[in-house]
Specification:
Structural class: alpha/beta
Bound molecules: thymidine-5'-diphosphate, magnesium ion
Strand order of the largest sheet: 8-7-9-10-6-11-12-13-14
Largest sheet: 9 strands, mixed
Number of domains: 3
Mean pLDDT: 86
Radius of gyration: 26 Å
CATH architecture of the largest domain: 3-Layer(aba) Sandwich
Number of helices: 11
CATH topology of the largest domain: Rossmann fold
Low-confidence stretches: 1-7, 45-59
Strand content: 25-35%
């Protein structure tokens, strides 16, 4: 069989259904989806490696019942950077593969260099850089005042050579910065292509499991917000962390979106300083903007990230539309905004169909929980009426299609955090009303969206 345009050892397989084809084609012959075929290596991994892998997995490798398998907690190796460990679920796990994604320049290399320098004092570690030269990294380490006596570095992009080095050096923790710069000799496609990224990650994962090395992969995020070779990579690795934050502000969030060894949605918070990333141990107030007087269109939300409540200012701007009205969100779900506008119209009689509506979560934070709904609605009403919300007010609650306000999880913790930061009033779902009245914060429970809008008027 001849295959033009590719090396003889590769096939093209579909990232959706796994069907394979000898030649690249636009549409998958299996599931009919377009543009899903990527080049992959045809052969299975070498038999010797596979055998060793099975042996590590559980004695005979045969069928067992769950009760026969000893369920022990993974030993964790803390990185010494508390906020990073928190996002990881307590620390690194031997043989675990962690993917850290984020925009270029957000601080991935900085964080990992700091973490490895700390680990290097007690454990063998290896930093593999395909992006920066040894000299650049040494300079950065010096600027960060890191102790680097035992931190080993390899500037290399060839996968086979990296694998050989890892096998020879056997570090406890290895960083690959970044997965997009690596290339395997076995594939014809260019570094950074989906095929290369996937193959390199798969090979590194295999080695990590076999040799018990913790491998941390750095992945750049494309403009669309997905990691290059998007879902493919997330499936291969054990833990996926994303760096978030506005590169213009100094705060950075690191969020777990997948974790086979711990909870997801835990976040770690850092500030980028001229001496690298510093932990922010009490971050609940960093997403409040700093304007002194209350302004229309601004509403403070108490959101819950993992086990941690955060106060975030939600800003809305509603303005006369010229032509098609525009709906834009930053850090919030755009589809949800359209839904909230419809609810606001149908249930509270407030129409925005001839208005542009822009909504922003301050500080580059991304909020995905529905408990943000009520804050978005009230910020919109406030901007439309050009009236600021009452002072020292916080809000949370989900808005349903029927106009009802649904409870948010961990309401009491949210209220406590708001009170701690000096807020004196909270507009919350009826179901989140505390059983005993809180001493330091006045709780205003609401059942429906029109009631919430009405209560605002009374509060003025
Ligand atoms: P970097 O870790 O190189 O980002 P990534 O690996 O995610 O692409 O971060 C680079 C940015 O961080 C760069 O814009 C400069 C800034 N920075 C600081 O502000 N302080 C520092 O101490 C360091 C090392 C970087
Ligand atoms: Mg980098």
């Amino acid at each position: 069989m001849t295959r033009s345009g590719s090396s003889p050892k590769t096939v093209f397989s579909c990232t959706e259904c796994g069907a394979s084809a000898a030649k690249w084609q636009g549409q998958c012959p299996g599931c009919g989806v377009w543009n899903t075929l990527v080049e992959t290596i045809a052969e299975a991994p070498p038999a010797a490696g596979a055998r060793r892998f099975v042996a590590l997995g559980g004695g005979s490798g045969g069928v067992q019942t769950l009760s026969e398998i000893e369920a022990r907690e993974e030993d964790r190796l803390p990185t010494g950077i508390g906020e990073f460990d928190r996002a990881l679920g307590g620390g690194l796990v031997a043989g675990g593969v962690v993917l850290i994604g984020g925009d270029p320049g957000i601080g991935k290399s900085t964080l990992l260099l700091q973490a490895l320098a700390g680990l290097a004092t007690n454990h063998p570690v290896l930093y593999v850089s395909g992006e920066e030269s040894g000299q650049q990294i040494a300079l950065r380490a010096r600027r960060l005042s890191l102790v680097t006596g035992r931190l080993r570095l390899l500037a290399e992009i060839n996968l086979e050579r990296i694998l050989a080095t890892l096998q020879a050096v056997l570090p406890r923790v290895a960083v690959i910065d970044s997965i997009q710069t690596l290339w395997s000799e076995q594939l014809a496609s260019a570094p950074g292509s989906v095929a290369q990224v996937r193959e390199c990650a798969a090979q590194l994962t295999r080695l990590a499991k076999r040799a018990g090395i913790t491998v941390i992969l750095v992945g750049h995020v494309t403009k669309e917000g997905a990691l290059a070779g998007p879902r493919v990579l997330e499936h291969i690795v054990d833990t996926v962390l994303y760096f978030e934050g506005d590169t213009h502000s100094s705060f950075r969030l690191i969020r777990a979106v997948k974790n086979r060894y711990g909870a997801v949605n835990e976040i770690g918070v850092f500030a980028m300083t001229d001496r690298g990333l510093k932990m922010v141990s009490n971050p609940s107030a960093i997403f409040l903007s700093q304007h002194g007087v209350d302004v229309p269109g601004s509403c403070v939300l108490v959101t819950q990230e993992g086990t941690r409540p955060l106060l975030v200012e939600v800003q809305a701007l509603v303005d006369q539309a010229h032509g098609n009205p525009r709906r834009l969100t930053v850090g919030l779900d755009a589809q949800r905004l359209a839904m909230l506008l419809a609810v606001l119209h149908r249930h509270a009689g407030i129409a925005c169909f001839d208005q542009d509506v822009f909504v922003n979560a301050v500080g580059g934070v991304k909020i995905s929980e529905p408990a943000a709904d009520l804050a978005v609605v009230l910020a919109i009403v406030s901007s439309l009426k050009n009236k600021s919300l009452p002072e020292k007010l916080v809000v949370f609650g989900e808005v349903g299609l029927a106009g009802e306000i649904r409870p948010a999880p961990r309401g009491q913790e949210r209220l406590r955090e708001a009170a701690k930061l000096g807020f004196t009033r909270a507009l919350v779902p009826e179901a989140n009303r505390p059983r005993r009245a809180a001493a330091d914060i006045e709780v205003i429970p609401v059942r429906r969206v029109e009631e919430a809008v009405g209560r605002l008027r009374e509060l003025e």
